[in-house]
């Protein structure tokens, strides 16, 4: 077949291409309405504008979260966590649950969301209305020996 | 050299000069459908031939494919022009060729995914149909003009010549016996008449386009 292609005349090759072109209806005009094309292009442009705006929403949300975290950290740094009591268990050597050294801390841990679960007020050592890492720090300091012994 | 996108006709001195492509593009951006129609009149042949060159086998199997991709190209052109007002194409024909090629590539992707209403042709056929389109719009149009001239030259042939052209497939595959039997002539007569047809067509092309289509070198030329 390749042999045949090589010995074809230039006009014969053009004739073959012309035959294929006529099968493909190459010589007719494309049936499109210019007015409709412009309308749909304008509609697509509107969608594009919305898409461009929406593209910034995740970035704005991330920036807002970052600002909130920074503001919270600055607030903590400025005003401090307040008085933090520690469980007295270390000094007394008691394994009493009164100071919270009974292993229930992890069930009460909520993080800095200003919520104290029921029966968890004992673990809110800094009295800031939640059981967070500040409370965990106090818990570690106060209950270290106790938990090791358990 | 400027690209002649429309068939070569001498300008009428009484008529005002046609608007430049850049002016038409500005008008399209302003929502002028007539300007887009004028651009389509100028370059639709370029779009269709670029698509055809990129996927000739698929186009020959399904003529609607060419129509769909050409329509998508014009939709893409309108979108691109209206979306980026600052993006002024350096050359409108080159810009259109690029959009056409992108649309062909998108159509191939849709076909390979099989999630489109485009005709399902086996991937082998898709692979076989992909040929590199000509990059230069001038070259593309020059080849298209040759085909158009050849089309009109065929109409100038006598009945015998046209009958032989009807047996093009058999003749180009050098199945002389088959073609001669269909035409009711001897093989040697067919061969000599075919040479005459080719010479007539070559002369006609030379007259219409000024292009010399080289004949196949015979053994005696070496």
Molecular structure report:
The complex is a heterodimer of chains A (150) and B (222). With 150 residues, chain A is an all-alpha fold. Chain A has seven helices and no strands. Among the domains of chain A are: 36 residues; 68 residues, no CATH class. Chain A is rod-shaped. Chain B has two domains: 114 residues, Orthogonal Bundle (Rna Polymerase Sigma Factor, Chain: A); 65 residues. Chain B has eleven helices and no strands. Chain B starts with 20 loop residues before the first helix and ends in a 13-residue tail after the last helix. Classes of the chains: A mainly alpha (150), B mainly alpha (222). Chains A and B meet through α2 and α3 of A and α2, α3, α4, α7 and α9 of B.
List the helices and strands and how they pair.
The complex is a heterodimer of chains A (150) and B (222).
Chain A lengths: L1 H5 L3 H14 L10 H22 L1 H23 L9 H4 L12 H4 L24 H17 L1
Chain B lengths: L20 H9 L3 H22 L1 H6 L1 H21 L8 H22 L9 H7 L7 H20 L2 H8 L1 H5 L3 H8 L3 H23 L13
Helix pairs in contact in B: 1-2, 2-4, 2-5, 2-7, 4-5, 7-11, 10-11
What descriptors fit this protein?
heterodimer; A: 150 residues; mainly alpha; 0% strand; rod-shaped; B: 222 residues; Rna Polymerase Sigma Factor, Chain: A; 2 domains; 11 helices
Q: H/E element string of chain A?
A: HHHHHHH
Largest interface: A-B, 35 and 50 residues
N-to-C CA distance of chain B: 36 Å
Q: How does the major sheet of chain B shape up?
A: none
Strand content of chain A: under 5%
Helix content of chain B: 55-70%
- pLDDT under 50 segments of chain B (min length 5)? 116-134
**How does the helix and strand content of chain B classify structurally?**
mainly alpha
Q: Give the SSE order of chain B as H and E letters.
A: HHHHHHHHHHH
Class based on secondary structure composition and strand pairing of chain A:
mainly alpha
For the CA atoms, what is the radius of gyration of chain A?
38 Å
Main beta-sheet annotation of chain A: none
**Can you give the helix content of chain A as a percent range?**
55-70%
Tally of extended strands of chain B? 0
Mean pLDDT of chain B: 79
Enumerate how many helices of chain B there are, as a single number: 11
How many β strands of chain A by DSSP? 0
Average pLDDT of chain A, rounded to a whole number, is 76
What is the total number of structural domains of chain B? 2
The best one-word shape of chain A is rod-shaped
């Amino acid at each position: 077949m390749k042999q045949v292609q090589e010995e074809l005349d230039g006009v014969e090759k053009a004739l073959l291409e012309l035959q294929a072109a006529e099968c493909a209806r190459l010589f007719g005009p494309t049936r499109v309405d210019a007015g409709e094309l412009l309308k749909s292009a304008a509609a697509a442009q509107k969608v594009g504008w919305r898409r461009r705006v929406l593209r910034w929403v995740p970035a704005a949300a991330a920036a807002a979260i970052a600002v909130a975290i920074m503001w919270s950290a600055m607030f903590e740094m400025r005003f401090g966590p307040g008085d933090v009591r520690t469980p007295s268990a270390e000094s007394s050597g008691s394994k009493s649950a009164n100071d919270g050294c009974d292993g229930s801390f992890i069930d009460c841990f909520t993080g800095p969301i200003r919520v104290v679960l029921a029966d968890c007020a004992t673990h809110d050592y800094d009295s800031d209305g939640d059981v967070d890492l500040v409370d965990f720090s106090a818990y570690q300091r106060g209950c270290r020996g106790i938990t090791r012994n358990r | 050299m400027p690209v002649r996108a429309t068939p070569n006709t001498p300008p009428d001195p009484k008529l005002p000069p046609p608007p430049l492509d850049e002016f038409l593009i500005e008008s399209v951006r302003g929502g002028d459908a007539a300007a887009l129609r004028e651009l389509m009149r100028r370059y639709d042949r370029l779009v269709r031939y670029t698509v055809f060159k990129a996927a000739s086998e698929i186009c020959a199997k399904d003529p609607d494919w060419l129509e769909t991709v050409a329509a998508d190209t014009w939709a893409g052109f309108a979108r691109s022009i209206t979306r980026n007002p600052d993006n002024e194409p350096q050359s409108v024909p080159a810009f259109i060729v690029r959009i056409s090629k992108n649309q062909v590539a998108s159509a191939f992707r849709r076909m390979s995914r099989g999630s489109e209403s485009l005709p399902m042709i086996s991937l082998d056929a898709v692979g076989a149909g992909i040929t590199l389109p000509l990059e230069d719009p001038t070259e593309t149009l020059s080849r298209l003009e040759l085909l158009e001239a050849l089309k009109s030259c065929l109409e100038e042939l006598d009945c015998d010549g046209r009958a032989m052209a009807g047996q093009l497939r058999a003749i180009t595959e050098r199945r002389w016996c088959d073609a001669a039997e269909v035409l009711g002539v001897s093989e040697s007569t067919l061969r000599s008449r075919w040479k005459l047809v080719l010479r007539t067509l070559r002369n006609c092309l030379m007259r219409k386009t000024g292009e010399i289509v080289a004949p196949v070198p015979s053994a005696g030329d070496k």
